[in-house]
Design goal:
The protein is mainly alpha-helical. It has 5 helices and 4 strands; from the N terminus they run αββαββααα. Strand 3 and strand 4 form a beta hairpin. Helix 3 packs antiparallel against helix 4. It is elongated, with a radius of gyration of 25 Å. The N terminus is likely disordered.
Length: about 210
């Protein structure tokens, strides 16, 4: 009976043990990209490291800017026409909104992951784990940006259908800082998207299955 034929690299075992030789004589790795060099460190991808450093810095800036965002304004409240209006200080703070809290937590988590990824990017065995982490980080960033942007638009324009008044005409500085944090986080999300695409292409190029 003819022995079953398994393409090298399909299960990541054969390619990890010895690798294979392509048509151009170069050695190619399996899906995991591990083992071909006997555990040696992977060559540094300058573009990938630069993108990870940018994501780390951008998410850190976004989390800090949103985390320190607060503004206090004095509002005049008129009780009756015969009494003078009361001066009531009212504070707008990021922690008063669940969308902004999620935004800060998500950016902090992606920042921490990016720091770990920069340190582990030279390890061949971490390629798949980093790719999965990049996918989760991408989902976190885009969902956080969407939630924070929706709340910011609500504060900028209000909602006449449910009689929610706009507040950015009162807390202008607060809204400007929140919008700046959202824009920086959105840039980090797009950078993370490019990084994930480059990682997938690199795994595809180094795989012996294709």
């Amino acid at each position: 009976m003819e022995a079953s034929r398994v393409k090298p690299g399909f299960n990541g075992v054969a390619a990890a043990a010895a690798g294979s030789t392509g048509s151009d004589g170069s050695r190619r790795l399996g899906y995991t990209g591990a083992g071909a060099a006997g555990g040696r460190a992977a060559p540094v991808d300058a573009c990938g490291v630069a993108l990870r450093a940018f994501v780390l810095a951008a998410t850190l800036v976004a989390a800090v800017v949103m985390g320190v965002d607060r503004q206090t304004r004095t509002i005049q409240v008129t009780i009756t026409d015969t009494l003078p209006p009361l001066q009531v200080p009212v504070t707008a703070k990021w922690s008063y909104s669940s969308a902004f809290v999620y935004f800060v937590v998500a950016n902090a988590m992606v920042c921490a992951f990016s720091a770990v990824a920069v340190a582990a990017c030279r390890r061949r065995g971490a390629a798949v784990a980093l790719m999965v982490g990049d996918l989760l980080a991408l989902a976190l960033l885009f969902s956080a940006v969407g939630a924070a942007a929706e709340f910011g638009i609500l504060g900028e324009r209000g909602n006449s259908h449910v009689r929610w008044a706009k507040v950015c005409n009162v807390y202008g500085r607060f809204c400007e800082r929140a919008m700046a944090a959202v824009i920086v986080s959105l840039l980090a999300a797009f950078a993370n998207l490019v990084l994930l695409m480059l990682t997938i292409l690199n795994v595809h190029k180094n795989s012996t299955y294709y």
